[in-house]
Amino acid sequence: MEKRLDISLYKGGVSVLIDRYLADSHISEEELYFFLGFGFVLQLADDLQDIASDLREGSQTLLTLEQNPDTLEKLVNQLLQFVYRLFQGYPFANADFQKFLLHGTIYLLLMSTQMSQEHFHKDYLQKLETYFPVRFPFLNQYTKNSALYPQGINEKDLLRGMDLFL
Questions:
Q1: Could you tell me if residue 119 is inside a domain?
Q2: Contact at 8 Å (CB) between 105 and 112?
Q3: Of 42, 93, 97, 141, which has the maximum CB count within 10 A?
Q4: Is the distance from CB of 117 to CB of 132 less than 8 angstroms?
Q5: 90 lies in which domain range?
Q6: Do the domain assignments include residue 100?
């Protein structure tokens, strides 16, 4: 578990930190921690939505090592708490942008959990649903019947949309 945690932090955190560095090479210590943490969260969101495909392909992530729904739910809860602490610890110049980015990140995690719903208890998903702006059945139906994607939206298109949103 610890090795997978290190890999996720490195893979996600460093890629976002490099993007930030390319935008402006002056990085404060607070920015370093925030962008490493934010990249880590994005990596875990990706791993969360890819549980089924990672299991089929034999990829080991934090979320494929243990297939007990109770353990996965605990990991998702810890990730959500980490996101709140990460955003509280970084001094955003624009409070509205901070709120927008925080909500978008939480929604990404909730949607990612819903996309891997077969790995979670139904009552857990129902609790998470109360924090999402639309009901999960609507989300499922929308992704299958979107006017933009008459054949149904695929995971890559959905992820691209969330990336653009964030």
A1: yes
A2: no
A3: 42
A4: no
A5: 2-131
A6: yes
Q: Is residue 122 a part of any domain in this protein?
A: yes
Task: Report how many domains make up the chain.
Answer: 1
Map tokens 């549980």 to a residue. Answer: 51
Q: Cα separation of 62 and 140, whole Å?
A: 25
DSSP 92: -
Please tell me what DSSP assigns to residue 58: T
Burial class (CB in 10 A: 0-12, 13-18, 19+), 25: exposed
The answer as to whether 66 is a domain residue is: yes
- Please give the single-letter amino acid code of residue 55: L
**pLDDT confidence band for 95 (50 / 70 / 90):** very high
| Residue 135 CB partners (closer than 8 Å, separation 6+) | 129
Mean pLDDT of 3-29: 83
> How many other C-beta atoms are found inside a 10 Å radius of the C-beta of residue 80?
18
pLDDT digits (tens, 9 = 90+) for 40-70: 999 999 999 899 888 899 888 888 888 899 9
